[in-house]
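Morning F.,

Quick status update on the modeling queue. The single chain you submitted on Monday has been processed. Sequence for confirmation:
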Amino acid sequence: MSHWKPNTTLETLKCRAKLLAIARQFFHDNNYLEVDTPSLSQSTTPDPNIESFVTEFNNTRYFLHTSPEFSMKRLLAAGSGAIYQICKVFRQGEAGRNHNPEFTLIEWYQPGMHYRALIEQVDKLVRLLLKDNLPLNETVLLTYRQAFEQFAGFNPLTASTEQLQTILSENKIQLQQQTLTQNAYLDLIMSIIVQPNLPKDKPVFIYDYPASQAALANIRKDKTHVAERFELFINGIELANGYQELLDAREQQQRFENENKQRLAAGQQTIPTDAHLIAALQQGLPMVSGVALGFERILMLATDKNSIWDVIAFTADKA
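Structure tokens below.
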């Protein structure tokens, strides 16, 4: 019986430790404070695309965090300055070549930094982490619109639902359900058509997402009306998701309420609003940008592994 053995090798574990040390040195050199926030909370994100693990203590429901974002923003509102955290996070229903229900995030926030400057910082860190194993060519920057126009042949900001259905049909993509939301169609096209065709061996940053996909990002109040959000891809793998953070408590409350309405319509359990986060935003969050980087996916690239299961000591089925 070998079910007790780890999934990965000692060589991969040593690489993991080395990359974590490099990351911590990078943040130290850039004057970030390492912080530690709770994994358990009485609230969590109501994002309909993310499901949390739930547990109970003293007859009170708690959620395992899907990201340390809410707690870290409370620290920012309290005057922490630039902060980072390396922690385990947990998400229900996420399993596959690039997913494990428990995984490691490196998340950081820099007050006073614009999200386009944060893109440059993410690029520097990722190159530093991969320099000995995967030399990277020049960085590519594309708006969300440019990426879709270049690799899928249409403008995602103006396309109708009928156009999106036609594109899926032309690419012989079968849907499990006949009708999807506009964003669900776009997400499908992104994952099946756009991502696999992105340039290889280069960091590819896609930024300025549709306002409807803002999540916790600020929406630019100009004629473009896009979310100041970016994602990083290398060799078709999504590695990071970053924002110019939303500062408006009232708008954040409204977004949470809208997401709970979407959850209710989809038959999902609603999530209590994080009153602590709303109070922190009301107190005042500095202008800040932040990003979360999936560490195991970086480790996959560094060790040339095709599955996240090959870089984790013990996957969920062996834990």
